[in-house]
Fold:
Amino acid sequence: MSTELTPEQIQKVLQGIAIPPQPQVLVDLQMEQLKPDWSIQEIARLIGQDVGLSGSILKTVNSPFYKHSNTITSIDQAVNLLGVNSVVNLVNALSIKGALSDDDIIALGRFWDTAMDIAITSSVIAKQIGVPNPEEAYTLGLFHNCGVPLLMSRFANYNQVMIEAYADAGERIVEVENRRINTNHAVVGYYVAKSWNLPDYLCEAIHEHHRIMKTFAEESASARKKTLLAVLKMAEHICGNYRILGQQNEDYEWARIREIVWMYTGLTEYEFASLKLQIEEMGLGSLAYYD
Structure:
């Protein structure tokens, strides 16, 4: 994805969608992390200044997904237990949610639940297959569909567009979006990620998460990006994203790409089935919603 477009060209691509500005708390956190003497205490203090955000983080980290034996009652505890990267990831995701109106949030309740599910599942898969930095997979899982709620707010028919896109067994999801609304959630998500200063490899992965075959065929594509995308697509399938966003009983995208994903990660079909079962036994995945 070119980053050399003019503001006018970017707005044409975005179809007039306003990218939410990076919240000040994220600016402050990024500035703090750039300091050679940054501290966990200061990170916690910066987050704690936003009462609403702090409450959302504590609610999230005390959810059944994290399975902590004791209730986490402060941001200091959350940062110390989960690590700075995980908590900053949560701040990113919750900030996107906070950029929308209450009506949008209510309408997309299942979307937000699934985003968290995909993020945690991505982290679990990354650890299982030996990815060096599983928190990167977590971040991608949380952020990869951030363009969806923005498009939902912009286009009244977007929900129907997504159903049509996921129902198409032959055409990529973003191609259907492009045909119907002249943009797509991967492009919008890319510009959100860029404007919020996420690392370039994550921005690119967001842009390419529905063009796996093309990315994996490119010799210039980094192993890091390919691995993150492979993990994400496994997590999306396990979490039933095709059911949540696409309202389909079959995952046509996964059927097209699963062989290349398994080949790249070194997983056999049996090993993937075992991994899927393990994740579902943890209370994650599509069974968490459909059992």
